[in-house]
Amino acid sequence: MSKPTSLKRTSPFLLSGSWPDGFTASILLSDLRDACPCAHCTGEEIMGQQVFAGMKTLAPGMNELRALTPVGNYAVQASWEDGHDSGIYTWEMLRTVFEQKKLSEETLREIAQRSLH
Ligand SMILES: [Zn+2]
After folding, report:
1. What is the mean pLDDT of the segment spanning 71-81?
2. CA 81 – ligand 1 centroid, Å
3. Does 14 map to a domain?
4. Residue partners of 80: CB distance under 8 A and separation at least 6
5. Does 65 map to a domain?
6. In what order do the strands lie in the sheet with 65-71?
7. What is the CA(102)–ligand 1 centre distance, in A?
8. Torsion angle, alpha carbons of 42, 15, 7, 44, to 10
């Protein structure tokens, strides 16, 4: 899957992406964090200890994105305000999250309206 032509944080909790095939979408940063592919978040075995997915605790800042850093030409690394930065999203994973979590125009309008107040 191809690389997005743009990735922008359009509000403190929204990320917008566009792809060369014309697909554009906005998702909640919390959905991006939920999709973190790192071993810790997906519950893969870490040093012989089973960490179960779904046992994630809510840490302050965990859904606040600090930075998206390109990794080679195939992925981006997300750094979150709670210090978590082991999640590397390949372009393909990122596109899948955007396709699955795309917010409707109506939801985006509601969010925009709410943030005015
Ligand atoms: Zn993670």
Report:
1. 95
2. 13
3. yes
4. 33, 61, 62, 63, 64, 65, 66
5. yes
6. 65-71, 75-80, 87-90
7. 21
8. 0
What is the reported pLDDT for 44? 61
Residue 64, domain member (yes or no): yes
How far apart are the CA of 111 and the centre of ligand 1, in A?
26
Which residues have a Cβ under 8 Å from the Cβ of 116 and sit 6 or more positions away?
Answer: none
Is 1 domain-assigned?
no
* Domain count across the chain: 1
> How many Å apart are CA 7 and CA 10, to the nearest integer?
9
| Residue partners of 58: CB distance under 8 A and separation at least 6 | none
Residue 42 Cα to ligand 1 midpoint, Å, equals 7
Rounded distance from Cα 113 to ligand 1 centre (Å): 31
pTM: 0.84
* pLDDT bucket at 53, cuts 50 / 70 / 90: very low
Q: Determine the structural domain holding residue 44 and report its residue range.
A: 6-114
CA 43–ligand 1 middle distance (angstroms): 9
**Higher-pLDDT residue of 38, 53:** 38
